[in-house]
Write a structure and sequence with these properties.
Chain A: Keywords: Ubl conjugation pathway. The structure holds two protein chains of two kinds. By secondary structure, chain A is an alpha+beta fold. Chain A contains three helices and four strands, in the order H-E-E-E-E-H-H. Chain A has a four-stranded antiparallel beta sheet. Chain B is mostly helical. Chain B has helices spanning 35-47, 69-94, 97-113, 115-129, 136-151, 153-162, 164-185, 196-217, 219-229, 242-254, 257-269, 271-274, 290-298, 306-316, 323-332, 343-354, 366-381, 383-397, 400-403, 428-460, and strands at residues 23-24, 33-34, 63-64, 462-463. In chain B, a hairpin with an 8-residue loop joins strand 1 (23-24) and strand 2. Chain B starts with 22 loop residues before the first strand and ends in a 10-residue tail after the last strand. Classes of the chains: A alpha+beta, B mainly alpha. Chain A binds chain B through residues 2-3, 5, 8-9, 12-13, 16, 35, 60, 62-64, 66-68, 71, 73, 75, 91-92, 101-102, 105-108, 140-143, 145-146, 148, and chain B through 8-12, 31, 37, 40-41, 44, 48, 50, 55-56, 271, 275, 277-279, 326, 329-330, 332-333, 335-337, 352, 356-357, 359-360.
Chain lengths: 156, 473
């Protein structure tokens, strides 16, 4: 049942993207698998931190999607770096309440997450990693959605 | 109006073939969904303690379900009690520990055994009979000793609630020694009806027998109910070494008492460490934090601490962390583990298909823990009063001849013994004792019953429809 729901839902999202396209700056790179998608995103304005770069997002849809959020991370590749951002760890894990169990709800979709992350980059001006980045990257073995981030910072 | 409904969970449109009632408008805004989809989301929200609100308009989502009066009353009482108990506790603490302990001991004795027993104990038999005191110094000494004894009543009740394992180990031994001592000194000791001394000796043994019975026959059922309430799949033995995980689950369940409580406090305060670094290896059991594991095993009690065990279970709603979920999550995302090569990739695919991801464990909040602790403390301290009330109820319900002392009718349970002792139910302490035991048993039964009703109600519930003008023709 759960698996059926995930497959159906991801397929529907795919249909919608094929039919209506994606907002500017967001591109579906690999979306044939109903379990794992890759998006390329870039910022639309002239934010000096990001304006020349394209970033790659990896979506993993668990069997309980869309009841549970998908796992969304930045992929680290030579042509696709992990963007500098106070809420993005250098291993690609993103601290965004939308991606945790508390902030997620089934009204969200892969597309809406991409847009949130895009705007998260657009509005940022700090060229830094989250505090404790090195330690986190070294120690963390949890799945992103089980990490209890403190969503205390509403400024970025 | 012309557009077909679209489920916001699975994004499917309404089909003409859909059975009536399979769709629901959960809130006043435009959101619509399948009943089934909504229910799986609602269950998830409940598991992660998320308020049930429409994700768009934030209005509350109401549930409809069969209504059981007893389960409802039980819930209401529990909620009220949970709200009240911190205040009761704080007040109690602020009244000064020693004074309150002494007062408590005296009060407990009074309620449980009656006024005469208290006066005899606190003031001595001489005071009661002729008011003469045997010398000031001795008098004071005895009174102080007795006051100190009274001080121990509350701690004993609390310890037996919070550290049942220790209690059984300690009290069983001392009760047996005291029993042997009394038997040597007193020929009538083992006679029926029992003296207070015999009752004191027998109680720990009865208690232990009752707990063992409960653990063997009712516990598994209650554990199952707890899991169902929290929306977890039943514990079923799986292949690929999951037996080990289950065993660990049981290990954790089996460890109750203060150690379990401590464990939970640690879990709350230190959530990071709790998710074990299961790492890349599939049977990541060895990778669990070693030190704490040892600690856990060392402190492993005999396993008769059902009360606290269940208390803890209720806190966690049965969802002690599920190691399987961690492992799967780990395997599904090799990029967290740089060491995992491409080889593992195929393996990972397989793995994910075989074992659907268990939902992440629900973590109780610090608030939930505190209110459970406070509930159980206040519950323990109220026990003498409840026992008395139950005893009085017994007196009212049972025929007078069973509960009033004087006339000798030679009945084994109610009549006076050949040695002239009044029957068990003819004394206040005896009635309280029987009443207290009765209360404990009834309370346990009621709890399990109300849980089973809740599970039954959960299987039949629906998301409530909201009237929407736009759907009306």
């Amino acid at each position: 049942m759960a698996t059926g729901m995930r497959t159906k839902r991801v397929a529907k999202e795919r249909q919608k993207i094929d039919k209506f396209g994606l907002p500017p700056g967001i591109e579906l790179v690999e979306g044939n698998d109903l379990k794992e998608w890759l998006f390329d995103i870039r910022v639309l304005d002239n934010n000096p931190l990001y304006n020349d770069n394209v970033y790659r997002l990896k979506f993993v849809f668990s069997d309980s999607y869309p009841i549970e959020p998908p796992e969304v991370t930045f992929v680290d590749k030579p042509a696709r770096p992990v963007p500098m951002h106070p809420h993005i760890y250098s291993n690609g894990i993103i601290c965004l309440d939308l991606l945790g169990n508390q902030g997620w709800s089934p009204v969200q979709s892969a597309e809406s997450i991409c847009m949130s992350i895009q705007s998260m980059l657009t509005s940022n001006s700090k060229n830094e990693r989250p505090p404790g980045d090195e330690e986190f990257v070294r120690v963390n073995r949890q799945r992103p959605r089980d990490i209890e981030f403190l969503y205390h910072d509403n400024t970025v | 109006m012309d557009t077909p409904r679209r489920c916001f969970v699975c994004l499917t449109d309404e089909e003409p073939t859909d059975p009536p009632g399979s769709w629901v408008d959960p809130c006043p805004c435009t959101l619509e969904a399948h009943q089934d989809c909504m229910l799986s989301w609602v269950t998830d929200c409940e598991r992660s303690n998320k308020p049930l609100k429409c994700p768009v308009c934030k209005s509350d989502i109401q549930m409809d379900g069969p209504w059981d009066p007893i389960a409802h009353i039980h819930d209401v009482i529990h909620r009220k009690f949970t709200r009240a108990s911190p205040f009761i506790l704080l007040t109690g603490v602020s009244v000064g520990v020693q004074f309150s302990l002494q007062m408590y001991g005296a009060m407990a004795l009074w309620t449980f055994a009656g006024k005469e027993a208290l006066l005899r104990f606190a003031l001595g038999p001489e005071m009661l009979i002729d008011g003469r005191s045997p010398g000031a110094l001795r008098f004071a000494k005895e009174r102080i000793v007795n006051a100190l004894i009274l001080m121990n009543v509350a701690p004993t009740l609390l310890i037996s609630q919070l550290l049942p394992g220790l209690t059984n180990r300690y009290f069983m031994q001392s009760a047996s020694i005291y029993g042997i001592y009394s038997m040597i000194r007193n020929d009538n000791f083992l006679e029926w009806p029992p003296s207070p001394r015999l009752a004191m000796v027998a109680l720990p043994i009865i208690r232990k027998a009752y707990f063992s019975f409960w653990r063997d026959f009712v516990m598994p059922y209650e554990v199952k109910l707890n899991r169902q309430i929290s929306g977890l799949p039943p514990l079923d033995p799986r292949e690929n070494g999951d037996g080990a995980h289950n065993r660990q689950d049981l290990d954790r369940n089996g460890e109750g008492g203060f150690v379990g409580l401590l464990q939970n406090i640690l879990d709350v305060l230190d959530p990071d460490e709790e998710e074990p670094a299961a790492g890349a290896n599939n049977g990541g059991r060895e990778a669990r934090p070693g030190a704490r594991n040892e600690f856990r095993l060392e402190q492993h009690e005999e396993g008769d601490e059902i009360r606290v065990e269940l208390l803890i279970q209720e806190i966690e709603e049965g969802a002690v962390e599920i190691p399987r979920a961690d492992n799967d999550g780990q395997d599904a995302h090799p990029q967290w583990d740089q060491a995992q090569g491409d080889l593992a990739d195929g393996h990972r695919q397989e793995n994910q298909r075989d074992a659907p991801q268990a939902p992440p464990a629900r973590r109780m909040g610090l608030g939930g823990l505190l209110s459970s602790v406070s509930n159980s403390i206040v519950g323990a301290l109220l026990l003498p009063g409840i026992s008395f009330a139950m005893g009085e109820a017994l007196r009212l319900i049972l025929p007078r001849s069973w509960t009033t002392a004087p006339f000798a009718r030679n009945h084994w349970l109610f009549g006076p013994s050949p040695s002239g002792r009044p029957g068990l139910l003819q004394q206040q302490w005896g009635r309280s004792l029987v009443g207290g035991c009765l209360y404990v048993v009834l309370n346990d039964i009621l709890r399990v019953y109300s849980k089973s009703r809740r599970v039954a109600a959960m299987q039949n519930r629906k998301v409530k429809n909201v009237d929407r003008p736009r759907r009306k023709k």
